[in-house]
Amino acid sequence: MEWNDLFETAVVVTDGAWGTQLQSMGLPPVECPDAYNLTHPDAVRAVAERYIAAGSQIVLTNTFGASRKMLQRHHLSDHTVEINRIGADLSREAAASGCKVFGSIGPTGVLLMMGEASEEELADVFAEQAAALVEGGVDGLVIETMSDLQEACIATRAAVAAGVPVVACMCYDKGENLDRTMMGVTPEQAVKGLTDAGAHAIGANCGQGLDGYIKICRRLAAATDLPIWIKANAGLPEYEDGRSVYRTTPTEFAGKIPLLIEAGATFVGGCCGTTPEFISKVSEVVRGLSNP
């Protein structure tokens, strides 16, 4: 399926952060967010509904940490398929009005370079999650917040094999200019590796705010003709009383969206620190640019 079959607008508004929304609805910081699909489905569905009401044209699933490897940490690996299928179903129920649903797939938390898992093992882990999300009815898959290009490529190949459009995103938050992943991957290296792995769109999320990701977006766009997906944080966090506080306001965040689109972004949304209010402001800006 081509992107043109999914969207009619030139710029597509995605959603914002999920974890903090669930925490505002009672999720303890130490509890597995993905398990809420089983224990608190109404809360999960409500997060998707809030973003859709704010203007999201794509809403993700509450499955970022729902690979078998990550769920093992919470003794939930036997529920991997169920958690992903239900996560897809909950977002689909919220999106009945026509918003698209993309399944979220995050890193496994293991290091290939340290021999903590084999490539074959991770390929099976990602294939299981991707298949469960597709069975749950998602329109696409998003590989996100990746630092290790090798792992990202394994995940991308597994997702592509599941038969839906795939966005592959790295997290850039290291280096003097914050233009490297934790494993030292540059935007240009990511483009080559993820394109070779079959990604239908390339992106970046988490790690930093829009100021840095406008520059990253420009480099991604210069290196590929594929659509670009950017979900920046609400700036860099400050720490107060043991928790992260983001100072960027929804209006400030949305005010930089035109520069992000000018840099080449096709899909725009938010990551850590962003809320439905952020997405509402972003949606207003995007509509204004489409209808000057």
How do the helices and strands line up, and which of them pair or pack?
Layout: E1 12-13, H1 19-24, H2 36-39, H3 41-54, E2 58-60, H4 68-72, H5 80-94, E3 100-105, H6 119-135, E4 140-146, H7 149-161, E5 166-170, H8 187-196, E6 201-205, H9 210-223, E7 228-232, E8 238-240, E9 243-245, H10 250-255, H11 257-262, E10 267-270, H12 276-290
Helix pairs in contact: 3-5, 3-12, 5-6, 6-7, 7-8, 8-9
Overview of this structure, please?
It is a single chain. This protein is α/β, with parallel strands linked by helices and 292 residues long. It has a single domain (3-290), classed as Homocysteine-binding-like domain (TIM Barrel), CATH 3.20.20. It is 43% helix and 15% strand. The chain contains twelve helices and ten strands. It has helices at 19-24, 36-39, 41-54, 68-72, 80-94, 119-135, 149-161, 187-196, 210-223, 250-255, 257-262, 276-290; strands at residues 12-13, 58-60, 100-105, 140-146, 166-170, 201-205, 228-232, 238-240, 243-245, 267-270. The strands form two sheets. Strands 1-10-7-6-5-4-3-2 form an eight-stranded parallel beta sheet. It has a two-stranded antiparallel sheet with strand order 8-9. β5 (166-170), α8 (187-196) and β6 (201-205) form a beta-alpha-beta unit. α3 packs across α5 and α8 (187-196) packs across α9. The longest helix has 17 residues, at 119-135. It is globular. The chain starts with 11 loop residues before the first strand and ends with a helix. The model has no long low-confidence stretch (mean pLDDT 94).
